[in-house]
Amino acid sequence: MISGIEDKALELGFDEVGFCQADISSITSKNLIKFIDKGRHGEMKWMSDNLDRRLKPVNMWKDAKSAVVVLANYSNNQNPLHYLKKKNNGLISLYAKNKDYHKWIKGRLKNLASWTSSKTKVEVKVFVDTAPLMEKPLAESAGLGWIGKHTNLISKNFGNWTFIGIMLLNVKIFSRKKTIKNSCGSCSKCIDICPTKAFPKPYELDARKCISYLTIEHKSHIPRKFRSLLGNRIYGCDDCLAICPWNKFAKLSSHIAFLAKKELDNISLAKLSSIDELEFRKMYKGSPIKRIGRNQFIRNVLIAMGNSSSRIMIPHVLRLIYDNSPLVRVAAIWALGKLSKKIFNFEKNKNFRNENENDVRNEWILMHNELEGGFKNK
Ligand code: B12
Ligand code: SF4
Ligand code: SF4
Fold first, then answer.
1. Last residue of a domain, one of 243, 262, 281
2. Looking at 247, 262, 277, which one is the last position of a domain?
3. Ligand nearest to the CA of 148
4. Pure H helices in the chain
5. Do residues 155 and 285 share a domain?
6. In 10 A of CB 165, how many CB atoms?
7. Which terminus of the chain faces fewer neighbouring Cβ atoms within 10 Å, N or C?
8. Do 217 and 285 fall into the same domain?
9. In 3-state terms, what secondary structure has residue 296?
10. Which atom belonging to ligand 2 lies closest to the Cα atom of 236?
């Protein structure tokens, strides 16, 4: 049965397949509890809401006995670190430069599930990302790689650029691959490069500080202390993955769905800042970016504009001071303050009095204080 499932999964397009018990170690479960207790999941309330189910696969499906773990390689052969210097362009993380991987993986896993049930009497359930399952520890147990100090799975076939998907079975099958020894050694490149110091310790991440969380999962204003550190990253972050020396094993993905789509890659911030709701939905149809919505996306774009030190951004930022969304207005005020103190002061005098939203009024005050110290509330 194992080789049948493996062959079918590879035929469906997955790049690597492994098998393991549908269980995670008690240390892993304890670490997840510590992560939640410390509040490191931030606004991702779904992580604490379904904690019980997340702790063990059997808590989600009592008949689960083993797991088929699949990897999909999404390497673009690009080094995202090079794009950090292009400050007038928005940097989207590698995984989001084309189609939404959830759909890609789920479709194929469902196919694999139907095939497995039709060929055997086995019951199956499929999962990718959104389900309360700890995918990385399962992939590690299935012998597909090791969890590095940056907390992601590293594959000796594909480096850092893989997605994980899981299919649970109600029968016992055992891994044919040996677990892979952790090969991080004394390296600490991922910890050192992190712009927001999001790793309290190696192998531990405080999601609240991670740019991936701040730009994607965090729905309200980005805390002021992180804004400058975002640079031009407007959706996700790849720094800790990109610096990892094990990317020497990365190879170009064979899946067109994951290769960078030209019109989504490296786009001018000025151009992005002008898109409205309709254009946003059209532009990011089928991409994971669509899920954050236009306002949150423009919030991220504005923070990057503020970090660009480029005065050509000013007219675009100015227009967004009058946007309907307070989320956008706050980011626009911040960006304007970063780009021109003179124009900021002029606009503040014009707009502060008419602003009804407390968060936005507060941003005028805080930015003013940052630029001058003290604020006259006229
Ligand atoms: C929540 C989540 C996030 C959060 C938190 C990330 C994280 N490291 O947990 C945020 C939004 C920040 C995020 C970011 C990213 N994510 Co994400 N994410 C998830 C999700 C949904 C759950 C992960 C989870 O359970 N985290 C909870 C903590 C406890 O887990 P952990 O870090 O793995 O914890 C282990 C150790 O770090 C350690 N530990 C953790 N905390 C503590 C605390 C103490 C005190 C101790 C001692 C130990 C310890 O023990 C744990 C068990 O081994 C998974 C999908 C899934 N269902 O598994 C995808 C997933 C992990 N993400 C993925 C990706 C691709 C990313 C990004 C690269 C996207 C991007 N480019 O922006 C970044 C990478 C950032 C990073 N360095 O991790 C992939 C990773 C694939 C791979 N090869 O590993 C996954 C598996 C999705 C998928 N289906 O492919 N993600
Ligand atoms: S994804 Fe970026 S912000 Fe998040 S931990 Fe890695 S380097 Fe830090
Ligand atoms: S950069 Fe170094 S420490 Fe970090 S995951 Fe890669 S090998 Fe491990």
1. 262
2. 262
3. 3
4. 2-11, 26-37, 45-49, 51-55, 57-60, 101-119, 135-141, 189-193, 211-212, 224-227, 239-242, 269-273, 277-283, 293-306, 314-320, 326-339, 341-351, 358-371
5. no
6. 25
7. C
8. no
9. helix
10. 1
User: Do residues 335 and 302 make contact, with C-beta atoms less than 8 angstroms apart?
Assistant: yes
Mutate to test the pocket of ligand 1, among 14, 24, 32 (most ligand atoms within 8 A of CB): 32
Q: Which two tokens stand for residue 131?
A: 């389900």
Q: What is the rounded (10 degree) CA torsion for 185, 190, 191, 192?
A: 110
Return d(Cα 227, Cα 301) in angstroms, integer.
Answer: 11
One domain for residues 292 and 189: no
- Sorting pLDDT into bands at 50, 70 and 90, what band is 377? very low
Q: What is the mean pLDDT of residues 306-331?
A: 98
Q: What's the CA-to-centroid distance between 1 and ligand 2, angstroms? A: 40
Residue of the nearest CA to atom 70 in ligand 1? 236
Question: Is 129 in the active site?
Answer: yes
The confidence band for 129, taking pLDDT boundaries of 50, 70 and 90, is low
152 Cα: distance to centroid of ligand 1 (angstroms): 6
Structural domain count of the chain: 2
Of 140, 147, 150, the one to substitute when testing ligand 3's pocket (max ligand atoms within 8 A of C-beta) is 150
User: CA–CA distance from 164 to each of 40, 87, 223 (Å)?
Assistant: 22, 32, 31
For residue 317, what are its two tokens?
């930022």
Determine the structural domain holding residue 120 and report its residue range.
2-262
pLDDT for the residue numbered 266: 85
Same structural domain for residues 75 and 218?
Answer: yes
Model pTM score: 0.96
* C-beta 249 within 6 A of ligand 3: no
Do 33 and 79 lie in a common domain? Answer: yes
Distance CA 269, CA 287 (A): 19
User: For 245, which DSSP code?
Assistant: G
Whether residue 160 sits in one domain with residue 80: yes
Q: Which residue has the tokens 């970090």?
A: 307
List the catalytic residue out of 63, 129, 206, 276: 129
> Does residue 213's CB lie within 6 angstroms of at least one atom of ligand 1?
yes
Same domain, residue pair 273 and 256: no
pLDDT on residue 378: 39
**Which residue out of 196, 203, 226 has the highest number of ligand 2 atoms within 8 Å of its CB and is therefore the one to mutate?**
196
The kind and range of the H/E element at 21 are strand 16-21
